[in-house]
Amino acid sequence: MTRIAAPDDDDGSGSPPPSTPPTSAAVKRDAFPLVSPGKHSVSSSAYEGGGRYAPFPCTPPSVDSAKRSPLQWVPLDKHPFFSSTQSSGKSPRDSRRSGNLLTWDATSSLLYAWDPVARCVLRLSLRFGDADPRSSPSSSPSSAVLEAAIPPEVLMSDIQMESVVDQISLNVDGSLLLVVGSDSLRVMYLSKKTSPTDQRSCRTASVASQIFSGKNSGLQTLQASWHPYSRSHLAVLSSDSVFRLFDLSSDVEQPEQEYYLQPAEPVRCKKAASFCPVAFSFGGQHLWDTFSIFIVFSDGSVYILCPVVPFGSICRRTHIEEIYEDINMFGLNSSDLKAVSNSRLAIDWLEATFPELADQSAEGGSTLVSTAHPYAPINASLSLQGPLTKVYLHEGNNKSELKSIAGGEGRVIDFLYRSIGKDSILVIAWSSGQLQIDALADEVQPQWNVGPSPRLHLDSYGHIKGVAMICDTSSEEIPMPKFCPPGSNTSMADRANLGHPPPLLRLAIVDLALSKNVLESCLLSLFPDPLLDQTFYCLHGGGIDLIALQFLPFTNLIPDTDMIGKPPSVYPILNTCSTESCSSVLFGFVAIADLYGHSLILSLSTSYEFIVLEVKAWNELLHLHYDNDKRSAVDVEASLPEVISKDLLTGPKAIAIPSSTTLRSLTGDSIEGRSTLHHYIKLFRENYVEYAHKVYVELKEHAGYLQTFLNDQNKRLREAKQSILNIEAKEADIRNRIDRSFKVYELLDQRLQNFRNLPATNKKPLSRAEREFKAELDRFADVELDALHSAIQALNARLKRFYQSSSPASVTPRSRKNVSNTQLSQIKSSLEMLSLLNKENSKKVKLIEHELKSHEK
């Protein structure tokens, strides 16, 4: 696990180091470039000759000049509407609430903004214009100014909106605008046709008013998003743990699909309120990810619903055929019975949802897209796959191990899914200011629970109009999945669906190092970058941070190598907290692409002031950490950066001029002379003119890269010199410690010699048998020896009394009794035994005393 803190500006100048992307203080009322484009600049437009980029058309909607006055174009950050709103001094919105009141229509170049004061939608026509050197001398030639049309168009709703608006968003084609309120969902039907006046009324409809009526039901809308593969489907996640999919083209009140989520509640959650869904995200264009819904819960656990597709949506035919071939090739060949059952259900679902797959008479490639038909299995419901196991790849002893790992701190507040090459990246934002970045370590596969039947809503013709089902986690105990690390030689057949969800491979935990005041002022929000898939933005109470992923486990990995990628980088690009208290909070964010392949960030502050930032591509050298012991000379040479192209160093190709004497006889006005002249001019252009053009482009476009390379080398040199100085400064201390260690060693050696000179050092130590015998003697000396002495004394006293009583002098004739022979023999035998016992005891006592005396000597 990697923990990263946001970098600080050490020198206070605000200028970033050469090897980092743009970081700059917030500059309002002026669009500015952060760094000049370098070798790694990215553009979404076509590249033309001469080092220029061909701009893509960016035109506003058509305006009838006879009905309306000509439009005036001003920079967006200097638009008079926002200046007047700011000067009014009204607080349009509570800054503690999180949301986004901006949305962007890229196809029509229209920007939509919600006006909390007038409670209407503002539509601005935008265009990109060249920067004026007189107004902004610091602007580079490759900078574009974002201009807005005056006057703007005001879109009023035909119904009254009383609730506080938190978010607005457009559907795929920009015809519907979703307005998410605190207790309501509204949809405005937009029209691209301009009206004679600057204000127009739009038809507005309430979505699921019977379900999300805030005063009665008590349900809260956790997230509402348009489905990326349909223009009329809206997905809503509510606080009752139900995921609903509405088709606004047919019914705005009843959902088309309902999925009641029943996850396995963790043991550590003592209350039901502590474990609830927070956000969801749609999958990307990667096999079954297209039909997957990723849902994150408050404790950070991630679940998957697959497959889910809007009825009537349009999907690419080639993508569906790829999924169909994959599930037939690998799914049915699995050794797991549950995997085979899921594969058969998946094949039935594909053939029923897209009937073109089962129609063998249909010509392959005749249609480019396929329409999804309503379908749901009668005897099975979707399985809520999860929670996904969070693991990381531990490298040690040349083996890869899987170990469980914890998530962030606090509770989950936002969620983002990104499909980058071969990787599926999941980003989770925590209330503690941490970003948890994981990657799917395996393919997503559809799963069903056979048994519980879904509830189907049919029309009069028997066609499916709606589906509702309970999605429960699998009751079977699923073992830890076998993880195949990237670059391994494991076959795809071994990676087939084994009946369990894919694990999450931990990439990093990014700590934004935000203060408590910043975290309390506004919740974290995640936004993707429109150009670079490996970058995304984090909006918080302190401003905007850019997070760049430097390494992807499956996309950037080179097979048979032990490369460890660089951790993600955090770059603060906007700071709104000049003091400890954050007075200005951003509640609007849009990232768009300009003419030159750079990203423009549009933000709206609580004072209703626009902030325009131009984030250009940075020429950062992406480093990889290698295993130095296993690198060969060829690898070292290949890892060195290329300063200039080798094709340019070799020079232009030599023109082979034939040694012919007939050239002098040719004239310029003849046909042969013109043909020969044209031929040599063509050769000269192909070799020398194009080579000169390549040299010009190389020197012009790579100047920033070369400067960055030199700065990076100088930085490494300074770090090496500083390390040498630190070692030299510690050398004296190390020598003193070594001297003290030698003195302590000499002292210990002297003490050891003193111990060896003691008198008892030459005495041979007792063996184990001798130590046991000594312990037995000590026991005799303490206990049994005293008992033997007392027994001997008692026997001697009894013997004396017996002799005294049996003597003839002491017995009178009157008292003499006759004793039988048997009694006399018994008494004699007893005396003999006592005498023998007395002798033996005496011998033992003497032996013990002798041993004690010898031991004492």
Automatic annotation (TrEMBL):
Taxonomy, superkingdom: Eukaryota
Gene Ontology molecular functions: structural constituent of nuclear pore
Stretches the record annotates as Disordered: 1-59
Gene Ontology, cellular component aspect: nuclear pore
Coiled coil: 710-737
GO biological process: mRNA export from nucleus; protein import into nucleus; ribosomal large subunit export from nucleus; ribosomal small subunit export from nucleus
Keyword DNA-binding annotated: no
Protein transport recorded as keyword: yes
Family annotation (InterPro entries): Nucleoporin_Nup88 (IPR019321), NUP88/NUP82 (IPR037700), WD40_repeat_dom_sf (IPR036322)
Pfam families according to UniProt: Nup88 (PF10168)
Keywords linked to the UniProt accession: Coiled coil, mRNA transport, Nuclear pore complex, Nucleus, Protein transport, Translocation, Transport
Compartmental location: Nucleus, Nuclear pore complex
Protein name, per record: Nuclear pore component
